[in-house]
Amino acid sequence: MNTLLRRAVLSAGAITTAAALAASSVAPAAAAGANRGHDAAPARIGLPAGFPPESIAIEHGTAYLGNRVDGDIYALNLATGKGRVLSEGAAPGADCQMACGSLGLTIDSRRHRLWVAGGGDGDARVIDLRSGAVLAEYQLAPAGTSTFIDDVFLTDDGAWFTDAFDNALYRVKDGRVTKVPLRGDWVQVPDEFNANGLTTTPDGRALLVDNSATGELFRVQKNGTATRVDLDGQTLAHPDGMLREGRTLYAVQSDINAVAVIHLDRSGASGKIVNTLTSADFDIPTAIARNGGRLYVPNARFEVEDTPSTEYWLTALATGRGTGHGTE
Q1: At residue 36, does pLDDT exceed 60?
Q2: Strand, helix or coil for residue 240
Q3: Phi/psi at 72 (nearest 5 deg)?
Q4: CA separation for the pair 1, 99 (Å, rounded)
Q5: N or C: which end of the chain has fewer CB within 10 A?
Q6: 125: CATH
Q7: Is the Cβ–Cβ distance between 125 and 149 less than 8 Å?
Q8: Mean pLDDT in the chain?
C-alpha cells in the first residue's frame, strides 16, 4: 500500500469520538505471567524488520500477517514469537497499480485456506495454509480503475470483500465474482478510504461494514442495501478492522490508537459503544484477532518511513477468553 496516501487520508478523514466515551488503558498482557497456556505468550511480538503489516488472522496459535507492500504472508507462532514466510508476494519491480500488497485476511478452517484481499490492483487470492501455494486468483475490479480491495470475510454465501474506493462489495462464490453496489444509507466520500472493516451481524443474516471516511457502521443486506447502525448518536474515529464475538464488536480505530468495544443487538441494527481499549504500545493499529484470552493487534506505523530496518510488532491485550467471528 502507498503509506503516504493512506496516512493523508487518515488525517483528512479523522472523526472525533464523543467526549463522554469511557476509555480503558489496557496494558500489554505481559503482566499475566502467572497464567498458563495462551496467556503465557509474550505481550509484544516483534515482526521481521521491514515487514509492514496491516492484516491478521489467527488459527491454532498461529497468526498469519499480510505485508501491505510486497504481499508476503508471514506465519507467526504466538507462543514462541518465531515465524516464517509462508507465501511470497510480488517480486521486486513487479508492475502493480498501487502496491502488490496483502490487506485483509480470513481463514477457511475447513479447507485449510487463507483468503487475501489484494488492495490497489483490485484482486484477491486463495493460499494453501500448509504449503503456501496460491490456489486461486480473482480479479474483482478491473486493473487500472480506482479500487482498493481492503478486507475479506467468509460466509456461507461465499467470500465477501470491501472496496475502499468504490461504493460496492464483491462476492466470490463457486469461482464466480459478483459486484454488489452499496445503496440505501451508504454515502461514498470521494477520494477517501470508505468501506473498510467487514464482519457479520450477530444473527448472521447480514454483513457489518464500517466506513473509514464518515466513522459510521452499516448493516448491509446481501443485495447491498445498507442501513446505518444506530450507535446512540456516536461515531467512530477512522474505523478499520473489526472482530465480532457474539454481540460484542471490537472496532479498531487506527487514527486514535484505540479499539472501540460495541455492544450490538442481535440483528446488528443498533448498538452502543461501551468501552475503548488503548495501549501505550499501539502505533496506528489496523486489525484485530483473538487467540485464547488475548486480542492481537498489528501496528501499521503509517507515520514512519518504511525501510528494510523499520521495526513492526504485534500488541497483545489480555481481555478474557472469547471466540472470534471476524478479522481485518
Answers
A1: no
A2: strand
A3: -60, 150
A4: 5
A5: N
A6: 2.130.10.10
A7: no
A8: 86
